[in-house]
Automatic annotation (TrEMBL):
Gene3D superfamilies: Vaccinia Virus protein VP39 (3.40.50.150)
Domain Methyltransferase, first and last residues per copy: 43-145
Protein name: Methyltransferase domain-containing protein
The gene coding this protein: 20206464
Transmembrane residue ranges: none
Family annotation (InterPro entries): Methyltransf_25, SAM-dependent_MTases_sf
One Pfam short name: Methyltransf_25
Organism: Helobdella robusta (Californian leech)
Lineage of source species: Eukaryota, Metazoa, Spiralia, Lophotrochozoa, Annelida
Amino acid sequence: MDDANDSKYSCTESLHEIRQLGVYDVYKGTYDQVGVCDGVERVIAIGCGTAVCELEFLKRVAPNMKHLILVDKDAVCLEQLKMNLSNSLHKDIVGELHSSEAQQWQGPNIRVDLITMFHCLYYFKPEERKEFYRKCFNDWLNPGGKLYIKLAKDLHENNDEDTLNSFYRKTGRRPQLEAFTIKEEVRSLGYKIESEHHYEFYLDLKLFNNRMLHFVQYDATPPYENLDVIKKEMNKMIADGKKAYGAGILFCVVNNVSDKA
Ligand SMILES: C[S@@+](CC[C@H](N)C(=O)[O-])C[C@H]1O[C@@H](n2cnc3c(N)ncnc32)[C@H](O)[C@@H]1O
Protein backbone atom coordinates (compact mmCIF):
# COMPACT_ATOMS: atom_id res chain seq x y z
CA MET A 1 0.00 0.00 0.00
CA ASP A 2 1.36 3.45 -0.80
CA ASP A 3 1.29 6.33 1.67
CA ALA A 4 0.37 9.11 -0.75
CA ASN A 5 -2.01 11.76 0.55
CA ASP A 6 -5.02 10.94 -1.61
CA SER A 7 -7.75 12.13 0.72
CA LYS A 8 -9.33 14.29 -2.02
CA TYR A 9 -9.98 11.20 -4.12
CA SER A 10 -13.72 10.72 -4.61
CA CYS A 11 -15.69 7.54 -3.89
CA THR A 12 -16.35 7.14 -7.61
CA GLU A 13 -12.65 7.36 -8.47
CA SER A 14 -11.74 4.91 -5.68
CA LEU A 15 -14.33 2.42 -6.84
CA HIS A 16 -13.16 2.78 -10.45
CA GLU A 17 -9.60 1.98 -9.40
CA ILE A 18 -10.69 -1.09 -7.39
CA ARG A 19 -12.77 -2.36 -10.31
CA GLN A 20 -9.78 -2.06 -12.65
CA LEU A 21 -8.19 -4.91 -10.65
CA GLY A 22 -10.48 -7.32 -12.51
CA VAL A 23 -14.07 -6.49 -11.58
CA TYR A 24 -14.86 -4.72 -14.88
CA ASP A 25 -13.90 -7.86 -16.81
CA VAL A 26 -16.22 -9.97 -14.66
CA TYR A 27 -19.04 -7.45 -15.21
CA LYS A 28 -18.54 -7.50 -18.98
CA GLY A 29 -18.80 -11.31 -18.94
CA THR A 30 -22.07 -10.98 -17.01
CA TYR A 31 -23.51 -8.40 -19.46
CA ASP A 32 -22.57 -10.72 -22.35
CA GLN A 33 -24.88 -13.37 -20.86
CA VAL A 34 -27.94 -11.09 -20.95
CA GLY A 35 -28.27 -10.87 -24.73
CA VAL A 36 -30.09 -8.26 -26.78
CA CYS A 37 -33.42 -6.88 -25.46
CA ASP A 38 -35.51 -6.33 -28.59
CA GLY A 39 -37.13 -2.97 -29.21
CA VAL A 40 -35.25 -0.97 -26.57
CA GLU A 41 -34.89 2.62 -27.81
CA ARG A 42 -35.26 4.75 -24.69
CA VAL A 43 -33.38 4.05 -21.46
CA ILE A 44 -32.96 5.60 -18.00
CA ALA A 45 -29.83 4.88 -15.94
CA ILE A 46 -30.42 5.71 -12.27
CA GLY A 47 -27.42 6.33 -9.96
CA CYS A 48 -25.13 5.90 -12.96
CA GLY A 49 -22.00 7.58 -11.53
CA THR A 50 -19.68 7.92 -14.51
CA ALA A 51 -21.78 5.25 -16.30
CA VAL A 52 -18.78 3.07 -17.24
CA CYS A 53 -20.79 -0.07 -16.39
CA GLU A 54 -24.12 1.12 -17.77
CA LEU A 55 -22.55 2.00 -21.13
CA GLU A 56 -20.91 -1.45 -21.39
CA PHE A 57 -24.22 -3.08 -20.49
CA LEU A 58 -26.29 -1.02 -22.94
CA LYS A 59 -23.82 -1.54 -25.79
CA ARG A 60 -24.65 -5.24 -25.57
CA VAL A 61 -28.27 -5.23 -24.44
CA ALA A 62 -29.74 -2.19 -26.23
CA PRO A 63 -27.79 -1.82 -29.51
CA ASN A 64 -30.68 0.17 -31.02
CA MET A 65 -30.89 2.70 -28.20
CA LYS A 66 -31.75 6.22 -29.39
CA HIS A 67 -32.14 8.16 -26.13
CA LEU A 68 -30.30 7.68 -22.82
CA ILE A 69 -31.35 9.58 -19.70
CA LEU A 70 -28.81 9.54 -16.87
CA VAL A 71 -29.64 10.47 -13.28
CA ASP A 72 -27.14 10.79 -10.43
CA LYS A 73 -27.07 12.93 -7.34
CA ASP A 74 -23.29 13.41 -7.42
CA ALA A 75 -22.39 16.48 -9.50
CA VAL A 76 -18.67 15.65 -8.99
CA CYS A 77 -18.76 12.79 -11.49
CA LEU A 78 -20.65 14.83 -14.12
CA GLU A 79 -17.57 15.93 -16.13
CA GLN A 80 -16.21 12.38 -16.30
CA LEU A 81 -19.70 11.16 -17.20
CA LYS A 82 -19.91 13.65 -20.10
CA MET A 83 -16.52 12.49 -21.34
CA ASN A 84 -17.52 8.81 -21.13
CA LEU A 85 -20.73 9.55 -23.02
CA SER A 86 -18.97 11.37 -25.84
CA ASN A 87 -16.42 8.54 -26.11
CA SER A 88 -18.93 5.68 -26.01
CA LEU A 89 -22.24 6.85 -27.41
CA HIS A 90 -22.88 6.94 -31.14
CA LYS A 91 -23.44 10.57 -32.21
CA ASP A 92 -27.06 9.85 -33.16
CA ILE A 93 -27.94 8.81 -29.59
CA VAL A 94 -29.39 11.61 -27.46
CA GLY A 95 -27.82 11.79 -23.98
CA GLU A 96 -29.75 13.64 -21.27
CA LEU A 97 -28.11 14.29 -17.90
CA HIS A 98 -29.93 15.02 -14.64
CA SER A 99 -27.95 15.93 -11.56
CA SER A 100 -30.57 14.99 -8.98
CA GLU A 101 -31.49 12.53 -6.27
CA ALA A 102 -33.51 9.82 -7.99
CA GLN A 103 -36.20 10.12 -5.29
CA GLN A 104 -36.75 13.82 -6.18
CA TRP A 105 -36.38 13.51 -9.95
CA GLN A 106 -39.56 14.38 -11.88
CA GLY A 107 -39.17 11.48 -14.34
CA PRO A 108 -38.89 11.32 -18.13
CA ASN A 109 -41.10 13.35 -20.51
CA ILE A 110 -41.79 10.25 -22.58
CA ARG A 111 -41.95 6.69 -21.25
CA VAL A 112 -38.89 4.45 -21.70
CA ASP A 113 -38.29 0.76 -22.50
CA LEU A 114 -35.64 -0.08 -19.95
CA ILE A 115 -34.30 1.30 -16.65
CA THR A 116 -30.97 0.36 -15.05
CA MET A 117 -30.17 0.69 -11.39
CA PHE A 118 -26.67 -0.61 -10.79
CA HIS A 119 -25.25 -0.56 -7.25
CA CYS A 120 -27.47 2.30 -6.19
CA LEU A 121 -30.35 0.84 -4.16
CA TYR A 122 -28.01 0.58 -1.15
CA TYR A 123 -28.63 4.27 -0.65
CA PHE A 124 -32.46 4.15 -0.63
CA LYS A 125 -34.62 3.71 2.46
CA PRO A 126 -37.21 0.85 2.31
CA GLU A 127 -40.16 3.21 1.72
CA GLU A 128 -38.19 5.08 -0.98
CA ARG A 129 -37.45 1.80 -2.76
CA LYS A 130 -41.12 0.86 -2.79
CA GLU A 131 -42.09 4.25 -4.22
CA PHE A 132 -39.27 3.99 -6.75
CA TYR A 133 -40.50 0.61 -8.14
CA ARG A 134 -44.01 2.04 -8.34
CA LYS A 135 -42.82 5.06 -10.33
CA CYS A 136 -40.74 2.85 -12.63
CA PHE A 137 -43.60 0.53 -13.55
CA ASN A 138 -46.59 2.87 -13.30
CA ASP A 139 -45.17 6.15 -14.60
CA TRP A 140 -41.86 5.74 -16.41
CA LEU A 141 -41.73 2.41 -18.26
CA ASN A 142 -43.72 1.41 -21.32
CA PRO A 143 -45.90 -1.70 -20.90
CA GLY A 144 -43.55 -4.71 -20.93
CA GLY A 145 -40.62 -2.48 -19.89
CA LYS A 146 -37.75 -3.91 -17.87
CA LEU A 147 -35.96 -2.77 -14.73
CA TYR A 148 -32.41 -4.14 -14.54
CA ILE A 149 -31.00 -4.08 -11.01
CA LYS A 150 -27.43 -5.00 -10.08
CA LEU A 151 -26.45 -5.39 -6.45
CA ALA A 152 -23.89 -7.24 -4.34
CA LYS A 153 -24.60 -10.53 -2.61
CA ASP A 154 -23.93 -10.99 1.07
CA LEU A 155 -25.33 -13.73 3.30
CA HIS A 156 -27.56 -15.44 0.72
CA GLU A 157 -26.82 -17.38 -2.49
CA ASN A 158 -23.11 -16.77 -2.02
CA ASN A 159 -20.10 -19.06 -2.50
CA ASP A 160 -17.83 -17.27 -0.04
CA GLU A 161 -17.88 -14.55 2.61
CA ASP A 162 -18.43 -11.06 1.18
CA THR A 163 -15.28 -9.18 2.19
CA LEU A 164 -16.75 -5.68 2.36
CA ASN A 165 -19.74 -6.58 4.52
CA SER A 166 -17.79 -8.94 6.77
CA PHE A 167 -15.33 -6.11 7.28
CA TYR A 168 -18.16 -3.67 8.09
CA ARG A 169 -19.61 -6.15 10.59
CA LYS A 170 -16.29 -6.71 12.32
CA THR A 171 -15.76 -2.98 12.75
CA GLY A 172 -19.28 -2.06 13.91
CA ARG A 173 -20.54 -0.63 10.61
CA ARG A 174 -23.88 -1.37 8.95
CA PRO A 175 -23.59 -4.05 6.24
CA GLN A 176 -24.71 -3.01 2.78
CA LEU A 177 -28.09 -4.15 1.52
CA GLU A 178 -27.88 -7.33 -0.57
CA ALA A 179 -29.47 -8.47 -3.82
CA PHE A 180 -31.45 -11.24 -2.10
CA THR A 181 -33.33 -8.69 0.04
CA ILE A 182 -34.33 -6.69 -3.04
CA LYS A 183 -35.42 -9.78 -4.95
CA GLU A 184 -37.65 -10.79 -2.01
CA GLU A 185 -38.97 -7.24 -1.77
CA VAL A 186 -39.95 -6.86 -5.43
CA ARG A 187 -41.58 -10.32 -5.45
CA SER A 188 -43.59 -9.48 -2.33
CA LEU A 189 -44.89 -6.37 -4.14
CA GLY A 190 -46.16 -8.49 -7.04
CA TYR A 191 -43.34 -7.90 -9.54
CA LYS A 192 -41.61 -10.77 -11.27
CA ILE A 193 -37.89 -11.57 -11.62
CA GLU A 194 -37.64 -12.48 -15.28
CA SER A 195 -33.96 -13.46 -15.34
CA GLU A 196 -30.89 -13.30 -13.15
CA HIS A 197 -27.15 -13.51 -13.73
CA HIS A 198 -24.75 -14.18 -10.88
CA TYR A 199 -21.11 -13.08 -10.83
CA GLU A 200 -18.15 -13.28 -8.44
CA PHE A 201 -14.54 -12.17 -8.19
CA TYR A 202 -11.46 -12.50 -5.98
CA LEU A 203 -9.05 -9.56 -5.79
CA ASP A 204 -5.47 -9.50 -4.55
CA LEU A 205 -5.52 -7.35 -1.41
CA LYS A 206 -1.82 -6.62 -1.81
CA LEU A 207 -2.72 -4.53 -4.88
CA PHE A 208 -4.99 -2.19 -2.91
CA ASN A 209 -3.60 1.31 -2.33
CA ASN A 210 -4.81 4.17 -0.13
CA ARG A 211 -6.88 5.71 -2.91
CA MET A 212 -8.91 2.51 -3.29
CA LEU A 213 -9.46 2.33 0.45
CA HIS A 214 -11.22 5.69 0.44
CA PHE A 215 -14.23 3.93 -1.06
CA VAL A 216 -14.38 1.58 1.95
CA GLN A 217 -13.87 4.56 4.26
CA TYR A 218 -16.63 6.84 2.94
CA ASP A 219 -19.17 4.22 1.93
CA ALA A 220 -19.28 2.86 5.49
CA THR A 221 -22.25 3.74 7.73
CA PRO A 222 -21.12 5.55 9.82
CA PRO A 223 -17.96 6.48 7.81
CA TYR A 224 -14.53 5.83 9.34
CA GLU A 225 -12.57 8.89 10.44
CA ASN A 226 -9.41 7.69 8.75
CA LEU A 227 -7.90 4.64 7.08
CA ASP A 228 -6.27 3.15 10.20
CA VAL A 229 -8.93 0.53 11.07
CA ILE A 230 -9.28 -0.46 7.43
CA LYS A 231 -5.55 -0.89 6.91
CA LYS A 232 -5.19 -2.91 10.13
CA GLU A 233 -7.97 -5.31 9.11
CA MET A 234 -6.62 -5.63 5.59
CA ASN A 235 -3.11 -6.36 6.78
CA LYS A 236 -4.54 -9.15 8.96
CA MET A 237 -6.27 -10.63 5.93
CA ILE A 238 -3.12 -10.38 3.82
CA ALA A 239 -1.12 -12.09 6.59
CA ASP A 240 -3.74 -14.90 6.61
CA GLY A 241 -3.30 -15.27 2.84
CA LYS A 242 -6.87 -14.10 2.13
CA LYS A 243 -8.13 -12.37 -1.00
CA ALA A 244 -10.99 -9.86 -1.26
CA TYR A 245 -14.15 -11.66 -2.36
CA GLY A 246 -17.15 -9.98 -3.95
CA ALA A 247 -20.21 -11.35 -5.72
CA GLY A 248 -23.51 -10.04 -6.95
CA ILE A 249 -26.57 -10.49 -9.12
CA LEU A 250 -27.78 -8.66 -12.20
CA PHE A 251 -31.52 -9.32 -12.40
CA CYS A 252 -34.40 -8.16 -14.53
CA VAL A 253 -37.66 -7.11 -12.87
CA VAL A 254 -40.91 -6.90 -14.86
CA ASN A 255 -44.44 -5.95 -13.95
CA ASN A 256 -46.27 -9.24 -13.60
CA VAL A 257 -49.70 -7.63 -13.51
CA SER A 258 -49.47 -5.38 -16.56
CA ASP A 259 -47.71 -8.13 -18.55
CA LYS A 260 -50.71 -10.41 -18.05
CA ALA A 261 -53.25 -7.70 -18.83
C1 LIG B 1 -21.59 2.61 -6.10
S1 LIG B 1 -21.90 3.90 -7.23
C2 LIG B 1 -22.45 2.99 -8.66
C3 LIG B 1 -22.27 3.75 -9.93
C4 LIG B 1 -22.70 2.98 -11.19
N1 LIG B 1 -24.11 2.74 -11.20
C5 LIG B 1 -21.97 1.67 -11.29
O1 LIG B 1 -22.56 0.61 -11.08
O2 LIG B 1 -20.77 1.72 -11.58
C6 LIG B 1 -23.41 4.54 -6.60
C7 LIG B 1 -23.90 5.75 -7.35
O3 LIG B 1 -25.22 6.04 -6.90
C8 LIG B 1 -25.35 7.43 -6.77
N2 LIG B 1 -26.45 7.66 -5.84
C9 LIG B 1 -26.52 7.34 -4.54
N3 LIG B 1 -27.71 7.68 -4.03
C10 LIG B 1 -28.42 8.25 -5.04
C11 LIG B 1 -29.71 8.81 -5.14
N4 LIG B 1 -30.51 8.88 -4.09
N5 LIG B 1 -30.11 9.29 -6.34
C12 LIG B 1 -29.30 9.24 -7.41
N6 LIG B 1 -28.05 8.73 -7.38
C13 LIG B 1 -27.62 8.23 -6.20
C14 LIG B 1 -23.99 7.89 -6.26
O4 LIG B 1 -23.78 9.27 -6.49
C15 LIG B 1 -23.07 7.00 -7.09
O5 LIG B 1 -22.71 7.61 -8.31
